[in-house]
Amino acid sequence: MADPAAARCFQLTRPTGLAVFSLALALLASCTRSPVELRLVSPGLPIDRHIAEELVRAFDDNPRIRLTLVPRTDETMTSLETLASGVGELAPLYPSVLHIAYRSELHPTDIEDLLTGTTVFAGSEASPSRLILDETARRLGVLVDNIHFVETITPHPDVIVLFAPVMPDLMDDYRDYRLFSMGTADQLGRGSPAESVSLLRPEFQPVVLPTNLYPGVVTDPVVTIAVDKLLVVRSDIPETVVYDLISEILRLKPALSAALPGLFHKLTGDFDASSSTFVIHPGAQAYIEREAPSAYERYSGVAEVAVTILVGLFSGIFAIVRIYKIRRKNRIDTFYERAIGIRKSVQADTDAAARSRALKEIRQLQDSAFDLLVDERLAADESFRIFITLSNDIVAELRA
Q: How far apart are CA 166 and CA 179, in angstroms?
């Protein structure tokens, strides 16, 4: 009704069939929602940009979400800092495995020997590879100031550090390198160097790269660290937009897996948010809990049990009260029988002494009934009043 033209259409008192049909088409067109535009901050490393480009390409012609890759305004800023500056709405933090490669002619004994006196390329100071290497070096007792970093990868430096997902062609250009292992696979669970790095940073996890993962580069199992793949979004993005984004990513999983199988083939909508070390966006939380039972469903079973218990309790109380009343009724019936028995034992020709004994028994029977009434073992109801009337009539007969 906000559209004046639409308002005028509703003012027609006797519209023709063509006018109604035209109005329906106009309303249908106005209800069609255009796709939401989201800007994805371009990563710094070429391999990361390639993954981001594949993700953007998968959303081409998507009716709900449209992704656009935007460049960084400052290469010295991290992805999160760039996102916070308002350059975009999304930033990929999916690079997951730390690869430390060194020239095959080197024979380092430990990571300090590897990083001291050699040239090391780990990207810019704000790149994930550089940040993770700095953190790892400090955890393992290496002075970062003693590491000689180079800004370019050509000519090939002594050590190359990549924080990237496992991809078949990742090391194709570095066949004359070997991957450095932070301990052996047998040391995992026994205080290996990789575990010392992840001890105070729970988002880091030790991982083992199998033999021949990268032919010619990985000749033995390599122990390194990994981080969960993430897609970071600003907190002010609406919950429904994030919900739709996750739905579309999962729907496009076959296309993404075909382009990047090492990164997206294990993509799933099930995620245990309780184990996350990062804050979950409300839209992501809503998607995770999309199949969770409602409060009614969650507590309906408890309510059913409570109702069943209450019904059973009330039934039990009712049964106890009924039994108690029956016992009282049985007691008063006994008094009826005794009173009638006394009356029958006295005939018209019975002597005065026998009548006196019968009268005394009736009085004692009445006293016993009143004693039980005081003790609440008899109820002061109609049955008790009938007994008193009956016994008084017998007393009158005996006196007559």
A: 13
Exposure of 87 in the CB half-sphere (CA atoms within 13 A): 21
pTM of the model as a whole: 0.54
Tens digits of per-residue pLDDT, 327-345? 666 677 888 888 888 888 8
Q: Which residues contact 284 (CB under 8 A, 6 or more apart)?
A: 242, 243, 246, 273
Given the DSSP bridges, would you call strands 90-92 and 231-233 parallel, antiparallel or unpaired? Answer: antiparallel
The helix/strand count (H/E) of the chain reads as 14, 11
Tell me, rounded to whole angstroms, the distance of Cα 183 from its chain centroid: 36
Asked whether the bond before 46 is cis by omega within 30 degrees of 0, the reply is no
CA–CA separation, 47 and 162 (whole Å): 9
- Exposure b/e, 82-108, CB count within 10 A at least 16 = b: bbeeebbbbbbbbbbbbbbbbbeeeeb
pLDDT in tens, 109-129: 999 999 999 999 998 887 878
Neighbours of 266 (CB within 10 A): 10
Residue 35: name the closest of 70, 69, 62 by CA.
Answer: 62
Residue 84 near residue 223 (C-beta atoms within 8 A): no
